[in-house]
Amino acid sequence: xxxxxxxxxxxxxxxxxxxxxxxxxxxxxxxxxxxxxxxxxxxxxxxxxxxxxxxxxxxxxxxxxxxxxxxxxxxxxxxxxxxxxxxxxxxxxxxxxxxxxxxxxxxxxxxxxxxxxxxxxxxxxxxxxxxxxxxxxxxxxxxxxxxxxxxxxxxxxxxxxxxxxxxxxxxxxxxxxxxxxxxxxxxxxxxxxxxxxxxxxxxxxxxxxxxxxxxxxxxxxxxxxxxxxxxxxxxxxxxxxxxxxxxxxxxxxxxxxxxxxxxxxxxxxxxxxxxxxxxxxxxxxxxxxxxxxxxxxxxxxxxxxxxxxxxxxxxxxxxxxxxxxxxxxxxxxxxxxxxxxxxxxxxxxxxxxxxxxxxxxxxxxxxxxxxxxxxxxxxxxxxxxxxxxxxxxxxxxxxxxxxxxxxxxxxxxxxxxxxxxxxxxxxxxxxxxxxxxxxxxxxxxxxxxxxxxxxxxxxxxxxxxxxxxxxxxxxxx
Length: 477
Description:
This protein is of the alpha+beta class. 66% of the residues lie in helices and 10% in strands. It has eleven helices and seven strands. The radius of gyration is 52 Å and the shape is rod-shaped.
């Protein structure tokens, strides 16, 4: 039978309450017994004092034979008997109860001996001496019994106190064990999963949608993790949809310049075809070859423009493959070139043979977002510089995209990667570009940071793992 966390906590708390309740009830009972016994000890002390007074007046009477001493002696005996009759009903439940009756009988026998002595004359000295000896022995027995009565109950009080201490220590030990068990349950089953979910949430916010492992605990934790993983799956789908939406948004911007980009090669093709048609009968072969080469080059140019758009717009699953970084950057620059106004120059410093494991399509999205942000931040004239270098000590490649635009304020710099945060005017930016770029870089196991000074420009630094394997085949021209 598997108990869920709620049931385990309820069972643990119930056991704790039962132990605390039982311990409190037993402690209350023991304290009640101690109170009763303490009351009896006080009375027993009074009885013992009365017996000592009886013995004192016994000695006085035997020494001085005064009637006054005999009367006081008899009065104290009566007082002792009254004390015993008074406490007899109160101590019926105590273990000392059977000891009280022998003491009473001894006191009555003592009283009888004293009465016989008082009634004897002075003639029979031998009989009186025998009774005196018997009286002294009986008096000593009375003292011993009364003292034993007090000692017995005091020992019982100490035993109860020791039992109470043992019970309290045992209860504390059990409670500490149960508290440790509850702490373990709360820590292992609640706090630890919550911390894992918290860390995973931060990881998801950075673009890593790897689900949590599901343990067969058959409790709320398992159900929460399963629900969380379903949410992660949905978020990953939404993230892909956001990337695609941003890509389509970028395509909407890029295609506005496609007409201009295609116009030049199409005009050149048209012009070359018209010249060939006009000069077909009389042009020499060398001139015709030159015109045809020009047409072919312009066709390739137009094809590359369309191919770049098609490759960028095509939906693909995320896959890391060795790619020449320079080719990815150049393709991104070509796609955005129609949106770069006069006076803004894009400068590239990318090593020819630098290879990284990339999802080329998604990295294009990153570069397009950064380049578009740079273009929108620059008031011509200006410059956007893209550079890359290897950092073998960190086993990384550092890519920088730097512009000479207006820069970002310090209060906004820490928020630029937050979803839907934008410093642009309403309708100009969605606030998703840098957030999506951040997630893509995280999926590449890299980092992206930003440095900026207002009025001086912004610098984005991308760090990706260094790749030392074989390079890919060069793309066909």
